[in-house]
Structure formats: C-alpha cells, structure tokens
Sequence to fold (112 residues):
Amino acid sequence: MNDIKLQIILTGGRIDSIWDKGVDEIVVSPHSVIPGFFKDLGLTLPIIFTEICMKDSSQIDDEDRKKMLEAIEKSDTPKIILTHGTYTMLDTAKYLQKNLKRKYAIVILVGA
Fold:
C-alpha cells in the first residue's frame, strides 16, 4: 500500500453544484470544486481525487455505478468517500453492496 490515506470519488450532485445565472437555477458543476476546498484547508493528509461523472443523481445510471465500483476496486487505500446526490444515493449504495468484492474498504457515501 502506498502513502495515499484517503480517496474521494466525485460524481456530482448538489454537493458539487453551482448557481447558473443563464438558466436561473442550480446545476452540477462541469468539474468538482471539492479538491479546491481541501487544498484551501492546507491538510497534510495525502488525498487522491477521482472524478467519475458530474451529474445530478437522478441522471446516474448503472454504467456510472459500474465506473464507481471499478474505481473502488482499483483503489489501494482502505478509506474512500464517494460524493453523490441524495436522489439515487440508496440505489448506488445497494449496487455497491451487491457487487463490491473488496471487503476491507470503508466506503462512505456523502451528499448534500
């Protein structure tokens, strides 16, 4: 295992949304703003960020979930945070529970 202590897998959702004046509503950012928040904190903990997709969770499908699963399976850190919108978070949690072969990882799904 290398020195990476935490992996954050990014999928969009309200936690990674911005106000778009052009359409006068909240939309998912084209790229995650979360890595910048961690950088601003000045943490020394090694973190790797993996952007899977940037979607409202109502748009997340099994192909996206498969990519999330693959990122978790390939990760060499036992601590993973998966950002996700709340609308289909339970569907993703069930998918991961059913398909995840890696049993010694802590995977936390978090949304806003």
About this structure: The longest helix spans residues 62-74. The chain has a mean pLDDT of 91. The CA atoms of residues 97 and 103 lie 10 Å apart.
